[in-house]
Amino acid sequence: MDHKSIIQDIKNKNFKSVYLLHGEEPYYIDLISKSIIDNALEEHERDFNQMICYGADSDVQSIISEAKGYPLMAQRRLVVIREAQGLKDIELLEKYCANPEPTTVLVILYKYKKFDSRKKIFKEISKNGLTFSSDKIRDYQLVDWINNYLKTTEYAITPKASTLLADFLGNDLSKITNELDKLALLLQKGTTINEVHIEENIGISKDYNVYELTNAIAVRDVHKALTIVNYFEHNPKSGELVLVIGNIFTFFFKLMRIHFANNKSNEAISQLLKIHPFAVKELLNASKIYPPKMISRNISYLHEYDLKSKGLNNDSFSKADLMKELIYKIMH
Question: Could you read off the pLDDT of 81-108 as tens digits, one per residue?
Fold first, then answer.
């Protein structure tokens, strides 16, 4: 069952006795739990029938006692355990989950890692309630995720703008949606968001960012690449070395896969690399500039400078100096 179906059931007042929301991606956990809190009780019912606690500050027996309480002047009680991964002896909830109170909704929010599905408590919740695993979105899925998110609004986004957001913000869905929602407040409905909107309203430079640095490397534009690196030196948050190395590695890894692909058509490469078709042409052109031997050498440089950025064999160079030296070596 996906998060949209769960939320629709909640809005229809079809509640489970126990919810276990777990996984590495907190965004969907927060989305579903907010829907439960908003819909389980009316505003005037919450003082006597809602208990929200934090795992590290709670104990199982107190939670069970709250869950077994009878609702006062309401249809149900709501008990929410936030940060349940910090709850000591959480397995002791097993007995309650095997026979939960029908007038209580118990919500267990277990974030940043998966709950062990082999445990008996997990099986009891699956039988008598609902378990939902919130999985992390992979980096290559981010552009499509941003596009799909905006399809639920009255806005659209250009491919370059969505890639810029994905590269700069990473796969933190809460951060991405916060920035997109901010743009929705500032821009007229029906607007197609572009890189200028992002630069003016979010603060990500449309000309000096990791995405543009990778593009400069792709066409071997040394002057542009070093100009961007100089900008990063004076604006460190715009391009941290670890992010630069990660993005350039991904770029060269894709080029290496292209070199050894049997089918080099645009469609085949798009499917192989799981990228938007608009990006394929640029990668195919870059693969002509960087042969496999050069790519292998550059990946070796990236590994070397990643270690140097962490202090290995580096006693004096700053991260800005390391970045300049790395980019120069990669492109010569």
Answer: 999 999 999 999 999 999 999 999 999 9
pLDDT in tens, 111-137: 999 999 999 999 999 999 999 999 998
Give the CATH architecture of domain 210-331: Up-down Bundle (1.20)
Domain-by-domain residue ranges, the chain?
A: 3-133, 139-201, 210-331
CA dist 110 and 81 (Å) reads 8
* Angle between helices 210-218 and 280-289 in degrees, nearest 10: 50
Task: Write the CATH number of the domain with boundaries 139-201.
Answer: 1.10.8.60
Residue with tokens 């058509």: 265
pLDDT for 126: 96
Give the architecture-level CATH label for domain 3-133: 3-Layer(aba) Sandwich (3.40)
Q: How many CB atoms lie within 10 A of CB 8?
A: 12
What is the DSSP code string of 181-226? HHHHHHS-TT-EE-HHHHHHHT---SSSSHHHHHHHHHTT-HHHHH
Cα 32 from Cα 109, distance rounded (Å): 10
Transcribe 63-118 into DSSP letters.
Answer: HHHHHTSPPSSSS-EEEEEETGGG-TTGGGGHHHHHS--TTEEEEEEEESB---TT
> What is the chain's mean pLDDT, rounded?
91
DSSP-assigned letter for residue 156: E
pLDDT level of residue 238 (50, 70, 90 thresholds): confident
pLDDT of residue 11: 96
